[in-house]
Design a protein that fits this description.
Chain lengths: ~325, ~325
């Protein structure tokens, strides 16, 4: 049961943010695109968690939406268990594929239909994928799922607004699990929750992963959460992968200057007295990204080559300084 | 609805804190709701509700409770014509609470039967406008792009004309299309179509706006990931969430449709004379206003005003009651 379940190859997505046609003609403007995701490749192994981290605007959520088919890629391909997803999800084949993946969203209140009872929300995947299921059987399954995520089967008659944030996310998890998927894309599943509840939800997700052998793509901006959850980590910067490494490797020996900057900024609970450096500068506008390596305006090691040439991911890191051995240990 | 019954997340394993007991039973729960409370607190709304209910019931039960049958020529006596209110006819033993009109028909009874026609046309036309506006609004809001542009430009153009003008136009076209021998029987349906078509645009606009908000929400994304058909997403997910504003403008739209019908009938292009609506009665009455027979105009006009006003006030209240920002 090893080998990649998800294989993302040279994935790109740009968004058209041009002004309307008439304005363009009169003001003599060109069409304008934002490169939200640019040439991103990674693989996710079965039963593992691949985390994508990055600042806001780095393209994390766009990648999530591309994987589950909510957006179509501009270029590149996504293979799920050897089958291409980018070709469009249609027909009976797609039905079988769709059943195997699910998504958990950031804001559990928005991801649950406010007019539906919890039972109906959780039963929706069952209605879609197991139309032949008897009503009674379906209700039993919903009860099971509610118990599984730490709620009570009686909660099924309530509406989402009658729950707390953490409980709502449990409901969203129950819905995601209903049709027994193998793969779940989690788009910042805990960032809308209180810190005290975050740990509960994360532990629940880990338990479920162990129990059902789930594969996660886990998106977060919180490095501590990512360290706790993931096997592999990809660091995104302005739509490009800066560094990909195992969780242990990345935290022990970050190589890309951006990763180092992020890790240096993480407060640590023991307060070892380590000098914490704050993250310098801001992520540039994706509308007019800097030429060459997009990180060069903030990079302490940038030289002329960095300002001209886009670095490509080699051996898990996309940085000229690392290639040339200019990075101090 | 109520944010008070949100309980904090219990630690796994511990029983959830017990919520305060909520009344059980459908009626009890309804009487306990925020909506009912806001209704109770507004005397104007309470009066408007009872007025509207009274008028609607009166119209529905007209054949049972009307003192006379104004459409049965056998029971009419032309000599009763112009009998003043609350008096007996000088020629027969008929007594008229609201007087009799030029043909000796009891004004109260014609009002009862007339409200039936007015309400029927109003309801059906509003229903037609809601269904059409909602369908087009959902399609425009969910798909966006070309479909949205076409539907909304048509709506914009239509909204730039007064509704009554549109209705007159549609009515005129229908007159030309329908053969003469069917015009009488088709008149009411043509009227419903004309009023409905002249009012769909505001429903389409409202629904489109609400749909555009809802379609970006993650619960729609979740359904799309599962591969739920767009039509099912629209009907089962989005529609229930855009119904609130539709209910509000639908109520106000009902009052407008009733007035529009009365206007058309007043102008003489509405319902056939054999089925007079409130508007027709007002048209007949205004011919005798200056000769002193004021009751033929006054009572139907008051009924129309009461009906439109009470429905309108109900709509106003509903808009405020369903608006979380005004609570």
């Amino acid at each position: 049961m090893s080998g990649p379940l998800l294989d993302v190859r040279n994935l790109s997505r740009r968004f058209d943010v041009s002004k309307p046609w008439l304005n363009r003609k009169i003001e003599g403007l060109e069409r304008l695109y934002v490169k939200a995701v640019d040439d991103v490749s990674f693989t996710v192994n079965r039963g593992e968690t691949f985390a994508l981290v990055g600042e806001s605007g780095s393209g994390k959520s766009t990648i999530a939406r591309l994987i589950v088919g909510l957006l179509k890629p501009t270029a590149g391909e996504i293979f799920f268990d050897g089958q291409s997803l980018a070709k469009g999800l249609n027909g009976a084949e797609a039905r079988r594929l769709r059943r195997r993946f699910q998504m958990i969203f950031q804001d559990p209140l928005a991801s649950l239909n406010p007019r539906w009872r919890v039972t109906d929300i959780i039963a929706e995947p069952l209605r879609v994928f197991e139309g032949g299921m008897a009503d009674r059987e379906r209700r039993l399954r919903v009860g099971e799922l509610l118990t599984l995520v730490g709620l009570s089967p009686e909660d099924g008659v309530k509406f989402p607004h009658q729950f707390s944030g953490g409980q709502r996310q449990r409901i969203a998890i129950a819905r995601a699990l209903a049709a027994r998927p193998e793969f779940i894309v989690c788009d910042e599943p805990t960032s809308a929750l209180d810190v005290s509840v975050q740990a509960q939800i994360l532990n629940l997700m880990k338990d479920l992963q162990r129990e059902f052998g789930l594969t996660y793509v886990f998106i977060s901006h919180n490095l501590q959460v990512v360290r706790h959850m993931s096997d592999q980590i990809g660091v995104l910067y302005l739509g490009r992968l800066a560094e990909v490494n195992s969780a242990a490797g990345l935290f022990a020996a970050p190589r890309h200057p951006y990763t180092r900057m992020l890790l240096d900024a993480v407060p640590d609970i023991e307060m070892t007295g380590r000098g914490r450096r704050k993250v310098e500068g801001e992520i540039p506008s994706p509308l007019s990204p800097p030429p060459g390596c997009t990180f060069h305006p903030r990079c302490p090691l940038a030289n002329d080559r960095c300002r001209r040439e886009v670095p490509h991911l080699r051996a898990g890191v996309a940085c000229h300084a690392v290639e040339e051995g200019r990075v101090p240990a | 609805m109520s944010s008070q019954d949100m309980t904090p997340a219990p630690a796994p394993g511990t029983p959830a804190p017990v919520a305060p007991p909520r009344p059980t039973g459908r009626l009890r729960r309804m009487l306990d709701s925020d909506i009912f409370y806001s209704w109770k607190r507004s005397p104007v709304t309470v009066i408007a509700t009872f007025t509207a209910l009274f008028l609607i019931l009166m119209a529905l039960m007209a054949p049972l409770i009307a003192p006379h049958d104004p459409f049965n020529p056998a029971s009419l006596n032309l000599m009763d014509g112009f009998t003043p209110p609350a008096s007996a006819s000088a020629f027969s033993d008929n007594w008229f609470l609201m007087g009799a009109d030029n043909q000796g028909r009891d004004v109260l009874s014609t009002i009862m039967y007339g409200s039936r026609v007015s309400l029927f046309v109003g309801f059906m036309a509003t229903l037609f406008a809601v269904v059409m506006g909602m369908g087009l609004g959902l399609a425009a809001g969910y798909n966006g792009g070309m479909i949205d542009a076409v539907i909304m430009r048509v709506a914009d153009i239509q909204l730039s004309f007064p509704a009554i003008l549109i209705a007159l136009l549609i009515f005129g076209v229908a007159r030309g299309v329908i053969p003469a021998n069917q015009q009488e029987s088709m008149a009411i349906w043509v009227l419903i179509l004309a009023i409905g078509l002249s009012n769909w645009a505001q429903f389409a606009r409202t629904v489109r706006g609400a749909t555009m908000v809802e379609r970006e929400k993650d619960y729609v994304a979740a359904a799309r990931i599962m591969g739920v058909h767009p039509v099912l997403i629209l009907l089962r997910h989005i529609l229930p969430n855009v119904l609130g504003p539709v209910l509000v403008i639908g109520t106000i739209g009902l009052a407008l449709a009733i007035i529009e019908e009365a206007t058309l009938s007043f102008l003489g292009v509405g319902v056939p004379p054999t089925q007079p609506s409130l508007g027709t009665l007002i048209r007949i009455g205004q011919q005798y206003l200056f000769s002193g027979e004021w009751w033929i105009l006054f009572f139907p006009a008051m009924t129309l005003i009461l009906l439109a006003l009470s429905v309108n006030l109900l709509g106003d209240w509903l808009r405020d009651a369903l608006n979380p920002k005004l609570r």
